[in-house]
Amino acid sequence: MEITGILLAAGSASRFGGGKLAHPLPDGTPIGLASLRNLRAALPDVLVVIREGDARLREMFEDEGARVQECADARLGISRSLACAVRAAPAGRGWLFALGDMPYLKPQTLRAVAGSIGDGIAIPEYAGQRGNPVGFASRYVDELLALRGDEGARSLLRRHPDDVTVVPCDDPGILRDIDRREDLDGASHSVLTTEPLNSRHGGTGNTEEKEKRRKK
User: Fold this and answer.
1) Are the C-beta atoms of residues 5 and 98 closer than 8 Å to each other?
2) pLDDT of residue 11
3) What's the pLDDT tens digit per position in 147-164?
């Protein structure tokens, strides 16, 4: 079995005002579908994780032919969505975790990170800054399942620094998410993320730090 692509789409989108992943980009494509299509262009096996009871997103992703898993405790933070994905996707070589609100990633970047996981962890870097997606080999399954709260996978990166392969890329999309509505029109050109798989997904935590980055 190969690397499974995981699209994390269970965030509350509170800073966007709700309904973020179904909201259209300027070309009319829903944000979440653009993210899904890029991931599926890179990997044949993809699972989308959504909040329990989110019928709108389930229909949108399933109409695209995607496999969808509802996460009952997504409100407890991105770590729960990560664990839900790992439980739902049988361990092959590992997982590539991408975020549903990052539609500007290039498929070749996703492929490059997935191909660099090996028996460790892989993360992309653009202009000296690390971003998303992040890949983990299957041997980290127990640690991924044990994650709690909104910290996401940062603790694993700190715990296993020697296992991390940094993948240089010419893709600013690894640093750019859509967090607020102004991110769609260029008022906030990008969100520079140095902590991959962070609390953006859960809609809580690290808000002060994100605001500091926006003002720079």
Assistant:
1) yes
2) 85
3) 887 777 888 999 999 999
C-alpha distances in Å from residue 132, one per residue of 18, 58, 60, 100, 193 = 22, 23, 23, 11, 8
Nearest to 150 by CA among 82, 48, 94, 102: 82
* Phi, psi of 7, deg, nearest 5: -100, 115
Number of H helices, E strands in the chain: 7, 8
CB atoms < 10 A from the CB of 114, how many? 24
Which helix H or strand E contains 6, and what residues bound it? Answer: strand 3-9
Q: Which residue's entry shows tokens 């990166």?
A: 157
**Close Cβ partners of 73 (under 8 Å, ≥ 6 residues apart):** 80, 84
Compute the distance between CA of residue 15 and CA of residue 46 in angstroms, rounded to an integer: 27
Q: How many CB atoms are closer than 10 A to CB 138?
A: 18
Before 196, cis peptide (omega within 30)?
A: no
In this prediction the pTM is 0.84
Rounded CA separation 95/143 (Å): 13
